[in-house]
Amino acid sequence: MTGRAGVVGGNRGVGSSELRPDGAAKVGGAFAYAGDLRVPGMLHARTLRSPHPRARIGRVDTAAARRLAGVLAVVTAADVPGVATYGLISADQPVFAATEARYAGEPVAAVAAVDAATARRALAAIRVAYEPLPPLVDPGLAAEPGAELVHPDGNIYREITLTHGNPSAEGPVAVEDSYFVGMQDQAFLAPEAALVVPAADGGLDLRLATQWLHSDREQIAACLGLPESLVRLELAGVGGAFGGREDVTLQIHGALLALATGRPVRIAYDRVESFLGHPHRHPARMWFRHTATAAGDLVSVHARILMDGGAYTSSSPAVLANAVTHAAGPYRVPNAQLDGTVVRTNNPPCGAMRGFGVPQVAFGHEAQMDRLADLLGLHPVALRTRNALRPGDVLPTGQILGAPLPAREAIEAVAARPLPPPLTAAAPETALPGGRATAATHSRVRRGIGFALGYKNLLFSEGFDDASTARARLALDSDGVPFGTVHSACSEVGQGFVTVAGQIARTELGVERIELLPADTGIGSAGSTSASRQTWMSGGAVHGACVAVVDRLLARVARSLGLPPEVVESPRRSLVIDGGEIIGTETGTRLPLAEALADGGPVEAEYTFHHRRTTALDARGQGDPHVAFAAAAHRAVVDVDLDLGLVRVVAMALAQDCGTVINPLSLRGQVEGGTAQGLGLAVMEELVTVGGVVTNPTLHDYLLPTAADVPALDFVALTYPQPGAPYGVKGVGEAPTCTATAAVVAAIRDAVGRDLRRVPVRPVDLVDLSALADPAGR
Amino acid sequence: MTTPGGPSTVLHRPGTVGEAVASLTAEVEAGRDVRLLAGGTDLVPALRAGGRGPAAIVALRRVLELRVRGASADALTVGAGVTYADLAGWSLAPGLAAASRVVGSVQIRNCGTVGGALGSANPRGDLLTFLAAAEAEILLASARGARTTDVDGFLRDGPEPGELVTAVRVARPSGPQTYLKIGGRQAAFPALVSCALLVDRVRERVCCAVSGVATGPWRVAAAERLAGDEVDWSTGTAPLALARRFGELAAGGLRAAPPLPEDPRHPADYRVHAAGVLAARAFARCLAGVRRGDPA
């Protein structure tokens, strides 16, 4: 590591590689995910989905399904007592399609039965009168004036025109091309699940897997027509999210069935339903034109981005803002015209996924930078180093880039890492592209090296105050030993907040034992587990609450010791907690913490953390929209079999701007996962739709990287503290996803000498079909 | 926990082939939908996803006589209950072992069986492709007795009602064998295109089947004829140039075969091309002495 070391706590405090409290249970298979929850007498629910990407819906006949033995309820759009639609930004998504289905997989009805098999049979007994209509699945056509409207709200979710400097300024050297990014899925480990229990007060208790309890509650309560106080949510075990749990999926369906039957309802998706049920990463069509001076300084960047948002809004408007504002990449660009549109089609809805619009544009701007370097005769690293943003630079939005942002240092650091040894004839065939199946031949394998530099905004943008609240308490247990309690509604989806919160509380409260209460709606919102924000935001809330607890306790002790009022006012000037004791720094007085707590009772405090205010974009795309950024650079090394188009990623190196490191082990987990997910988009992960219908909604056909596909990550953490964040942290989960895809594709280009304009790269994109070139391998 | 198939499914657990056939026959004669269960790698996911389970399941794990493999002077016989993991290290059967090593994940190889590969009859199945090239005999048992059929016949007609695959029989290898496969990642992937090739030095011929292009494993007859004619059978070798022609003929033959449905990510042109490359490489490895580390 370079920069500030960052260890501020003890052995198990901030800066230590404390292990996850749930780690052993997860590895051993004992951890209970939301789908594992069972209560006596519960019913099993399933969802009926439209097979058509677009169809008018006539009668939905549920009579036969209701008559089946063991079926307790069937609900459709007619049974929604509150608002008929929901959504994160715009409530345009029907709980159930009522008059028209707008994507293949849209829920039409749900049933609750005594067991899952009966529920499945009931689905088969529901008769829906569909009148299929020609679906609008081409986002280019959807954006055209006069296009048929997919929805009364129109086909354009958002359009952004961003003008910076003089957009007609041009450098003498120009590169221009179009790029395409396919539809990636979050494909988290544990499919969607919730257990909904009706309560005596007419309300509901939900235990579920989600990314944002309070946002779910708001949407569920509105559709049920219940006050939010009657809808209580508790987080159950969440097996990954990556943005795919930001939108409500099965929550309202399960709640309607629980209210209809008066019995607990388990609603859970299988893998196919999971693929159909949540929004995906936006496919993007992008055009870029970069111009530069002969020396290699960027003069202008023009970009036009068209994203396919699918049938409902989800977080499309915010994703587009990210794509547009990051479209020029982490480079000094004096002049830019960056335009974007996200449209409604009859394709599956798209929304949040790790990187949130940035991986798409990073693939485009990094391809452009490589072409520019090629044209200028510069090394790709040299061109990036020359143009990399520095704090104080003006971004295309007019925002002044704050410190730190070690973009230049990141690309230089990653370029300086040792390369893997060259491929030799001694390598086993299983080490060649294609791995175990040994189809590749040494003599036809070429190696390539690629680089990518990127940056990603942290926290919510465009004026949103995504505050987080936490409560902390210091008390004595039954043995008289002091311990801390932390309560936050932060969704632990695997990112490690449960570890980090404990480390922060241990450091601040000065006690070893910390209990983290279940995340629920019994406390104020923690905001969403997304946008790389929870260590900063909810970490900040926990930090603030713990600091307040200690301040209160020390003030109380100061009063009881009869210290002067100015010490009572700022007790930390004269008192510290260390080693289980409160120590007077001047007097040397020592008071056991246990004694202080026994004397005056437990101490508790609540704290709400806000980040600095940002602003919306104006009509020219100008403003101060982003709280802060993190930079990352990847270097990828790949081997490609030239005749088969098989790719193997041989090595990945990453240098990332991480802020202060709270937990080095957890950090490594995040950056390795982010790298793997970006690698997946580069070479394999794509939901393929034909006429709006997903053709590969299984893990047999939608391939994810395995351990054999992801090389060990050579990782360099750049640890400059971030102002305004607790301890100087930065969010770390998203930045590597933004650069890994671009770096892997750059390496493949280097190996095969072809322009690659779409991801995922497919074998057919890499081979010359016109000639069966030397098939024997000589 | 949901019971696969639901509570109404009858489970038979025979201990012998005779008992298994008897259970199967009884269910068929009663007109009930009955399925065989061995490794469960296809049946269990289908039951989880489907609405109604079969009326009866005959579980074969206790039928130990299905789980043996053996070698005679001229043939290898593999019981239908033998798993891929059992075959993956079998030194007497290098081609069967090579195909078995690249089936699915380690969990699938531990569960999946030879009989299951035939029962599911996935047109791109790894083992099926090898068995087609190896001209395997498929042994079936029913209340009417035993019979054998070949892979083509089995794929065309399937087992008769009440019939159970008991084993497959292939000739003992008399030359190099290989199985090459491509797909979407480095391990645990279904075949996109694959090629099984066996050299028979006794009968002086090469047998080669390709999957992933035609509607099932496809024997590349013209390429096989070329090999039979032009390989130097006194040494069992061929020049590299012949491998290239072998691949071209294989690809040419596949262009005329009845195609699998088009795949938006992997167009037929690519799959035919890849099949030609795989056939040429398989040929070169088995006959032209191309081994690891040969210079480019």
UniProtKB/TrEMBL annotation, chain A:
SMART domains: Ald_Xan_dh_C (SM01008). It comes from the Bacteria. GO terms for molecular function: iron ion binding; oxidoreductase activity. Residues 28-134 form the Aldehyde oxidase/xanthine dehydrogenase a/b hammerhead domain. Coiled coil: none annotated. InterPro entries: Ald_Oxase/Xan_DH_a/b, Ald_Oxase/Xan_DH_a/b_sf, Ald_Oxase/xanthine_DH-like, AldOxase/xan_DH_MoCoBD1, AldOxase/xan_DH_MoCoBD2, AldOxase/xan_DH_Mopterin-bd_sf, Xanthine_dehydrogenase_dsu. This is Xanthine dehydrogenase subunit D. It comes from Parafrankia colletiae.
Automatic annotation (TrEMBL), chain B:
GO terms for molecular function: FAD binding; oxidoreductase activity. Residues 3-175 form the FAD-binding PCMH-type domain. It holds the Pfam family FAD_binding_5. The keyword Flavoprotein applies. Keywords: FAD, Flavoprotein, Oxidoreductase. Signal peptide: none annotated. SMART domains: CO_deh_flav_C (SM01092). Gene3D superfamilies: 3.30.465.10, CO dehydrogenase flavoprotein, C-terminal domain (3.30.390.50), Uridine Diphospho-n-acetylenolpyruvylglucosamine Reductase, domain 2 (3.30.43.10). It comes from the Bacteria. The keyword tRNA processing does not apply. PANTHER family: XANTHINE DEHYDROGENASE SUBUNIT C-RELATED (PTHR42659). This is Molybdopterin dehydrogenase. The lineage of its organism: Bacteria, Bacillati, Actinomycetota, Actinomycetes, Frankiales.
